[in-house]
Amino acid sequence: MTEEQSSGHRGKTILVVDDEPDLLKLLKEILQDDGYTVISAVGPAEGLGFVTLFKENIDLLLTDVMMPEMDGFELSERVKTIVPDIRVLFISGYTAEIIGRQNNLVEGLNFIRKPFSCEELCSAVLCNIQSIQASD
Question: Hey, which residues does 13 pair with through a beta bridge?
């Protein structure tokens, strides 16, 4: 990533929600290394708590689709009641077709399938961040 690309997302904050602590830690490290501020939450309840606390500062919700408490779609709907314009990037080991919401998911823009590389993750996040900046 060039300095120009990197500077475009400095100061952006991502809320990462996943029920797998090891994956959550890895996602946080990757995104921090790419220059983002990251708030990590183990599960939807903790994620909603952070949204309530930091709603003015969260630019992107990165969430797993399948979690025991509630799925990522329900989480994103609840988050959008607090932060209506938030961008959401879903991650899952399942394809968009299996999840059953393929009409609402765009691979690479708001859905990324596990396993993914660091570059694929950062590229998908950057696409979402740039779309936020374009709408400002």
Answer: 37
The total number of structural domains in the chain stands at 1
CB 110 within 8 A of CB 88: yes
How many whole angstroms separate alpha carbon 114 and alpha carbon 132?
24
CATH (domain of 75): 3.40.50.2300
Residues of the chain with pLDDT under 50: 1-8, 102-103
User: Can you give the pTM of this predicted structure?
Assistant: 0.86
Instruction: Give the 3-state secondary structure percentages of the chain, helix then strand then coil, rounded to 5.
Output: 45, 20, 35
Q: What is the three-class DSSP state of 86?
A: coil
d(CA 126, CA 96): 20
